[in-house]
Design a protein that fits this description.
By secondary structure, this protein is mainly alpha-helical. It is 71% helix and 0% strand. The protein has one domain: 434 Repressor (Amino-terminal Domain). Helix 1 runs parallel beside helix 4 and helix 2 packs across helix 3.
Length: 100
């Protein structure tokens, strides 16, 4: 699961906020947020919840965006590989139209 990448994408493309601004508003360091977004640190659920609230995006969307093929049971990987791009496109439009 790549939650950090999902959070970075949402911060940049949905919330339209700078990393330093977000970190300051949440009381975390920009270095820590950079490490989370870069996949070097795994954020706690509390931090993910705060980021979701700051970006005004529901947590299930962040989790979906962070899911990777390797996170899925082998018996379901083919189906996941087929539907993920479709749902990602739907979510992209939904996020831009409803959360900006």
């Amino acid at each position: 699961m790549n939650i950090g990448s999902a959070l970075k994408d949402i911060r940049q493309n949905v919330a339209g906020r700078r990393q330093s601004e977000v970190a300051e508003s949440l009381g975390i360091s920009q270095t820590y947020l950079s490490q989370v977004e870069g996949g070097k640190k795994i954020p706690s659920q509390e931090v993910v919840e705060k980021l979701c609230k700051a970006y005004k995006v529901p947590m299930p969307i962040v989790i979906w965006k962070g899911m990777e093929l390797k996170d899925i049971d082998k018996s379901k990987q083919r189906a996941f590989g087929l539907i993920k791009p479709i749902i990602d496109d739907i979510l992209a439009g939904f996020l831009v139209n409803n959360f900006k």
